[in-house]
Amino acid sequence: MTQLNIAVAPADTAVANNNANANPHAAAGKQVARWRVADIVALYELPFNDLMFRAQQTHREHFDANTVQLSTLLSIKTGGCEEDCAYCPQSVHHDTGLQADKLMPVNEVLAAAKVAKDNGATRFCMGAAWRNPKDRHLEPIKDMIRGVKAMGLETCVTLGMLETHQAQQLREAGLDYYNHNLDTSPEFYGQIISTRTYQDRLDTLERVRDAGINVCCGGIVGLGESRRERAGLIAQLANMEPYPESVPINNLVQVEGTPLTGTEAIDPFEFVRTIAIARITMPRAMVRLSAGREQMDEALQAMCFLAGANSIFYGDQLLTTSNPQAEADRKLLERLGIRAEAAQQMPLDNSGCEHGCEHGKSAPAAAPN
Fold first, then answer.
1. Which Pfam families does the annotation name (predicted)?
2. How confident is the model at residue 269 (pLDDT cuts 50, 70, 90)?
């Protein structure tokens, strides 16, 4: 495994530019300007209209602003997770009434993928509540990946921490994306989970990159973190080299029985600001509205699209929390004049990768202040 690394631009580039006018990925896959936490806090503090204008400008430079990708997420193994993530109803540490299930049969997963495709999804994500999968678990999962790809869908899985050989096996099966979120900033992380370190997460992301799999990595806001800690999460993501191809931004869904029940909700405009800043700092990424979208009214969702979100989880269930129904999503997109299309992601320079993939190094455990 290669050493975690990050490229740092000279002090007279975007690092010193507190209004963040410079594009941190002026040459994709090349030397990049490092986003300081202070730079991202400065973005949060911009007047709302100025921030939205800048995010929309960035979005239009890299994407058709009137298209989104529809992704469907299926929980293929629910509950019984050994981790103690404070937000998660699937943890064995929390009494949420959720019953643990075994891994779904391959044929049932493929049937669900067909329904997702028929409903317009172009990416099918499969999530299993494990700390880390055992090698025996990978055989049926590889069959799922092959079957879903045969339908013409992009494939994504989230299985917890991976060993190097496991990431390689998933790549050989044809996996397109691996999801492994950072959840929050390094400074706030200890308030949310104690059974897995921040470095554990970065190590898994590095193994995924080394295997030649695209990275899907984001976090959760509304956990009780401060604005600076939200900025710290964005800095971690934006300083990855390259930054993730997909960036899911989750708004905490409070589930009775988890330690975060009763946490004060994030201000809706602060959530939109987070979407906008993700777009500005990671201009080529697919920025996805993920968990918590059911709690958003249509106007707030529309504002998120204006801020640069160009992917949504689509369907009737998002792991163990509900998601707006597919028909309501279709009607909203139609009213906004937004088309559902496959990912438009611009290819990064892969000249330095022996796998011929969008390959790079992950960020260190802490971004500069």
1. BATS, Radical_SAM
2. very high
Say whether 357 is catalytic: no
Residue 247 parent element (H or E): strand 246-251
Tell which residue, 186, 181, 176, has the closest CA to residue 161.
181
Give residue 225's Cα distance to chain centre.
18
Q: Is 353 a catalytic residue?
A: no
Return d(Cα 306, Cα 228) in angstroms, integer.
23
Helix (H) or strand (E) holding 318: strand 317-318
Tokens representing residue 341 in the block: 């299309």
Q: Which CATH architecture has domain 37-340?
A: Alpha-Beta Barrel (3.20)
Structure-block tokens of residue 236: 């971690």
In 10 A of CB 251, how many CB atoms?
Answer: 22
Distance, CA of 126 to CA of 113 (rounded, Å): 10
156 annotated to a ligand binding site: yes
Q: What Rg, from alpha-carbon coordinates, does the chain have? A: 19
Active site residue 279: no
- What is the domain partition of the chain in residue ranges? 37-340
What CA–CA distance (Å, rounded) separates 46 from 26?
22
